[in-house]
Design goal:
- It catalyses: ATP + H2O = ADP + phosphate + H(+).
- About 35% of the residues lie in helices and about 15% in strands.
- Among the domains are: about 210 residues, 3-Layer(aba) Sandwich (Rossmann fold); about 140 residues, P-loop containing nucleotide triphosphate hydrolases (Rossmann fold, 3-Layer(aba) Sandwich), CATH 3.40.50.
- The longest helix is centred in the last third of the chain and has 16 residues.
- The protein is globular.
- By secondary structure, the protein is α/β, with parallel strands linked by helices.
- It has a seven-stranded parallel β-sheet, sandwiched between helices. Strands 8-13-12-9-11-10 form a six-stranded parallel β-sheet, with helices on both faces.
- It has 17 helices and 15 strands.
Length: about 500
């Protein structure tokens, strides 16, 4: 097959493809579309950006157009599942573009937006429903959606959908689908464990792999820079000051890491935005819109959120953190060098990530060239990047202090003082221990006080009783602190009560 007209697609679909500028199918499209039009299950593997969406969208639209049916309320005919909101929106846009001349309806549902609007959109029934698993289950539980009439199931980014993060939701969704259906699975990578699991959902599938599994894009120039963890942020800022880096996608391993990188870029005067699962839908849309129109030249993303970021003109991909799953590396660098363009992929690698680099090179069967640190790189920060503790200011309690002790004095900011043994208080409110006040002066505040006098033997009266000192004078003889006068009176009253006790007479 060399032209789309050779597939026997409906004329309205060919007209839409001509309007989109499509003439020759890509290898994944040329090998997949004939199987899909025959009604067979397909497991397709191809690099990111090779046209996998059209590979399953075109035969689906042709089948729906050839077998028109009245729409049933709350019941779609085709279900397409994807891991992210952005990818779901792009797939729905592709269906609408290819089927613009057909009387078919397409809806997309995902989390982060009001569910009531989605319920209204599904009430009259749709032909094609594109959804994320979580929101799909929410609609089913609210009885706003039925899957009993699904004719075709599509899993895009199947390796991610069949991973532990989605497998439980997917298993539940499959139980709600009719057994007599067509299933189409597509992905850029397919590890053996995921491939085995995928086969359990497919019936006699046609396996299509137009490139070796986990083969990276040929037009992507790859390199790795060995750098300490606490210098990654400085290295990123140094690279981004190069004007040739026009539009760059930065990958981090965690959501917190993405936000932290963006905060560092803002302080350096570099416009950047983060996109990950904790961001609301309006925030994600604003970040992507700014990245597309060029107002934001740096987009920081996590692996899952990056699935579906199809932005033209991405010149560089920077792996701020190397992925611990080597297949994710293929997806990451595939965000550049799209539509025949070239691109650069630079990876930062610290000592702990060298094992990840070996796994990537083993998977891709390529040795990633090493790039030296750029000249003029600023010195590393004094504190480690992982240590974010701030020293408490003088005269103020430490942030970790649990309260106050003594007479209104703050607790010591010294962490070693926090770990010291608790002081026991003896009779009369005097602390125990053998420590003596310095300079022979009575202790005050939260300082230590003199040890109590020995307790008299049973049956004997104490040699001295605490007497109330005249106002403005310190107690004499015992050297008892002024703060303990009232406790001394209490001890004296207790002795007087014991002398009047019948047992003591």
């Amino acid at each position: 097959m060399t032209l789309f007209t050779d597939f026997g697609l409906a004329q309205p679909i060919l007209k839409a493809l001509s309007a989109e500028g499509y003439e020759k199918p890509t290898p994944i499209q040329a090998q997949t579309i004939p199987y899909a039009m025959e009604g067979r299950d397909v497991c397709g593997i191809a690099q990111t950006g090779t046209g996998k969406t059209a590979a399953f969208a075109l035969p689906i639209l042709h089948r729906l157009n050839a077998n028109p049916k009245p729409r049933k309320p709350k019941s779609p005919r085709v279900l397409v599942l994807s891991p992210t909101r952005e990818l779901s929106g792009q797939i729905a846009d592709s269906f609408k573009a290819y089927g613009r001349n057909l009387r078919l309806s397409t809806e997309v549902v995902f989390g982060g937006v009001t569910i009531s609007r989605q319920e209204k959109a599904l009430a009259q029934g749709v032909d094609v429903l594109v959804a994320t698993p979580g929101r799909l289950i929410d609609l089913v539980d609210r009885r706003a959606l039925s899957l009993r009439d699904i004719e075709i199931l599509v899993l895009d980014e199947a390796d991610q959908m069949l991973d532990l993060g989605f497998i439980h939701a997917l298993k539940r969704i499959v139980t709600l689908l009719p057994k007599d259906r067509q299933s189409l699975f597509f992905s850029a990578t397919m590890p053996k464990t995921i491939s085995t699991l995928a086969d359990s959902f497919l019936r006699d599938p046609a396996h299509v792999a137009v490139t070796p599994v986990a083969t990276t894009a040929e037009r992507v120039e790859q390199s790795v820079i060995f750098v300490q963890t606490n210098r990654k942020q400085v290295l990123l800022e140094t690279l981004l000051r190069d004007p040739s880096i026009d539009r760059v996608l930065v990958f981090t391993r965690t959501k917190h890491g993405a936000d932290k990188v963006v905060r560092g870029l803002d302080k350096a005067g570099i416009a950047g935005a983060a996109i990950h699962g904790n961001k609301s839908q309006p925030q994600r849309e604003r970040a992507l819109a700014g990245f597309r129109d060029g107002s934001c030249r740096v987009l920081v993303a996590t692996d899952i959120a990056a699935r579906g970021i199809d932005v033209e003109g991405v010149t560089h991909v920077i792996n701020y953190d190397l992925p611990n799953v080597p297949e994710s590396y293929v997806h990451r660098i595939g965000r550049t060098a799209r539509a025949g363009a070239t691109g650069l992929a630079i990876s930062f690698c610290n000592d702990e990530e060298k094992a990840y680099l070996k796994d990537i090179e083993k998977l891709t069967r390529l040795k990633v060239p090493v790039m030296p640190l750029p000249e003029g790189l600023p010195a590393a920060p004094a504190a480690s990047e992982t240590s974010e503790r701030r020293e408490p200011q003088r005269g103020r309690p430490a942030p970790h202090a649990r309260g106050h002790q003594g007479h209104g004095q703050p607790r010591s900011a010294d962490p070693n003082a926090e770990r010291g043994p608790k002081r026991r208080r003896g009779r009369g409110g005097k602390p125990g221990g053998n420590a003596q006040p310095q300079g022979g002066q009575p202790a005050s505040g939260n300082q230590q006080r003199p040890a109590p006098a020995p307790r008299p033997a049973q049956g004997q009266r104490p040699a001295q009783q605490a007497q109330r000192a005249p106002q403005g004078q310190r107690p004499a003889a015992q050297g008892k602190p002024a703060s303990a006068r009232q406790d001394g009176r209490r001890d004296g009253a207790q002795v007087a009560w014991l002398e009047k006790s019948p047992r003591r007479r």
